[in-house]
Structure formats: C-alpha cells, structure tokens
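Our consortium's second objective concerns turning raw sequence data into structural hypotheses that experimental partners can test. To show how far this objective has progressed, the report includes one record in full. It was chosen at random from the queue rather than selected for favorable results. The single chain below, 359 residues long, was entered without modification.
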Amino acid sequence: MAYAVVMAGGNGTRLWPRVRTKSPKHLLRLGDRTLLERALERANALVGWDSVYVTTNESLLETIKNHIASRTPLAPCNVYTEPAVKDTGPAIGLMAIRIAAWDPDAVIAFLPADHVIMDEVEFSKVLQVAFRAGKSVDGLVVIGIPADEARTCYGYIKQGRSLYVEDGQPVYKVERFREKPNSQRAEKYVRQEEYLWNSGIVVGRADVILQLLKDHNPKMRPGLERIEASLGKSDEAEVIRETYLAFERISFDYAVLEKTSRLYMVVGDFGWEDIGSWGSLARISAKDTADNIFSGRAISIDTTNSHVSAPGKLVAAIGISDLIVIDTEDVLFICQRERDQEVKALLKRLDETGWTEYL
C-alpha cells in the first residue's frame, strides 16, 4: 500500500518572532488554512486519511494533535512523536520502521509540512508517478523543482538519463545530489540548467529507506535494528526513547541522499515554495505596486520592497526600503531583507543573554 507521512517536527526559527518554540511555522495561516492543514489535505488526496500519518517532536505533540483534531478528520492515533529533535534522518527511519511493521511492502511519501503548492492537481499527478516509481526502482525517488535562481538554502539534484515516461512524466536517474552549496556553486548549477532544487519530498519502499540508512550510517544501524526488534514488546516505548536519544542529529539529505547512487527523480513543476524564512514567505505573498507587503491597513510614501506586518494596527511608512518589520505582542523585529537568513544567529544571542521567554 501507499502511505504519506507529513513531517511536522521543525520549528522554523527563521520566521521568528511570528514563529516560536511552542508555535511552529507549519501552524502559520495562509488564507483560511494553516500550512499543516494544507499538507494533510494533499496527503489525503494521495492515499486517503487512513494511510496518512504525522510525525512531530515531543514538545509539539499536544499542540499538533489539538490542531489536527479541531480541523481535520485524521485519527489521533495516526500522529506519532519523535522522542528528541534529531532532524529528518532518524525521524524518517523511525516512521519507516513503524509502517514496515504492519506492511512490509509499504511505499511511503515523506512530505514536509511547511510547503506551499500552487497547483495541487499537478502535485497529485507527479506524486502518483513517484509512488509507482518508488515501488519498482531499486532506490528512492525525490521530487526536483526547476531552479530559477541560485538559492543556497536548498539541495541541488543533477538530472541524469531518462529511464521511462509515465503519464507524461519522465522518471530520471539522479547523477548527483549536492546538499546546500555555497553561493558560487549554486550560481554555477543554475547556469548549467541540468540541476534542480531538492523539494525535500522523498518516496520509497520502507525496506529500501531502512537499508540505505543502515548502509550509509553504520553508527545508526544498531539503533535502528534495536528499535525494529522492540516493536510489539513490553519495553517498546523505553527502547525507542533510549535509542533515539543516542542518535546523532542529521538530516536525511546528508545521511542518505548525498551518499547513495540509488536515487531517482520526477520533476515537480507545480508552483512550489518551502516556507523557511521571511524571504520565502514574501515570494508567495500579495504585493503592492512598489513590491511592498503590508498586513491590514497601510499607508506609505516613497516606500519600496518592504515587508511590514503589524496585525491590528495601521501601518504608516515614509521613505523606507528593503526592510522586514514584524510586530508581535512582545517583540518588534526589524531586519534588512537581504539578511533574513541571520535570524538564527539573533536567536542564539537571545539564548545567551538569558531572554529565553522570547524564543
């Protein structure tokens, strides 16, 4: 059977101060629904609610469960927890083990909860091709996004030869995967026109996912096997917690995708954006004629290319440009637009200062 796992464990610190430790970015509302709601609805369209699962970290479990229960028909038992924040490598491994325990032939799509998809019909079409490819090929299938600029926050996939075409969608062998290159290398990749962005969506058989994790991360192998052996036993929860806490923190991209030669790709040209920063949110937001983004009522003179969010207030601006200004109940955040990736460094300073109530 086909399954969809929505990955909802990250916090999205670069969207601070709107996003906080207890209020993750996938609960940001775009229009009438949150990012998480939209991701779950897309997953349901692919495999049906009974085969949709969510994984999140322990600190967010109750927040996520309450949000899902009030807004979707997803069963609470389909929401799983990760005992610690260890990134997507261990998280994908744990969910693959859980699903493989009741369906050894499972094909799973891992879908990040913080994506915006503009063409959901095309998204479903591409993912169905990826599901069928994931069942038949000897590896994993990733979704590549046409790269129109040199972004260093994404991995890059070098397109290899086309293996076959299904429903108008070629399935390619991946020649190379490079995670988050520097700006010079990213510019080179975009010029070459044979590299695509990595969407973060991975599709594959549960057994293949686990085998590749074990083969490329020998330190992880004993822990994964210990968890597999514990399922259904009285000490299952204890073993999972103890073992998971000992895993290194590593993304699935670094743990597997950069290392394996068993990688395939379907191109997803469906209007995709990974909402990871104020800049990425700006790319999908409505702008005025001077490229400004204002929330609610606003009046401005000689103001350009700025993003000002102050809910419940009139925004009045004169002579500013290239700024991000985010006003919340307890924080006023001001940043040059080109430096929005430095929010993590700011939060580190906050932590060192001891002002953790703002995190």
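The partners drew two points from this record. The chain has two domains: 2-276, 285-358. The CA atoms of residues 162 and 318 lie 54 Å apart. Both points have been shared with the crystallography group to help prioritize constructs.
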